[in-house]
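INFO batch 0412 | record 1 of 1 | parsing
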Amino acid sequence: MPKQVDHESRRRQIAAAVCQLADESGLEGVTLRDVAARAQVSMGAVQRCFGTKEEMLVFALGHIGERITARVSARLAASPAQSARTAVGHAVTEVSLVHEEHRAEARVWLAFVAQAAVSPPLAGILRTNYAHLQSLFARLIAESSGTPAPDRAARALLALADGLTTHVLVGHLSPTEALDILDDHLNRLWNEQAH
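INFO prediction complete | emitting tokens
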């Protein structure tokens, strides 16, 4: 009897291999052959899961976005009695990828961001991810003030978190300095919300 393969599980296994290879040598180092070897599957298995390399990259980027969103949700759920300001701080810290344990994910994320500048399908996934995170930030900010947050406040917070990822990754800022900048921004935001 032929072995049953969980298609979605196989796709996630391949996406993890894509991310490992992208961490090591950027997206230009991701080939179907290397992905198959890293995922420990045949080239045919990769091709059955993804019709093209771009389709595989789009899925892998979505996979990263899901992992970050799941981490944000888990962090928020871990402290349900926290203040709205603390909740926003936790969420934006997870999104900023400045901690050492997220360094590989930050390298992969930035490789995808760079590639998205010339790949409309990847850019579309990034826009969707950013829109989701911006909505989350807007909701958390609104909960603190009792009124809808201006979209620009959530947009600025997301842009700051994204930019800090780059600054930490290239060594311009330390993780501590980046977290201090986030904290200063949140304090100013909360002071503005209070008035």
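INFO post-check: The chain has a mean pLDDT of 88.
INFO record closed
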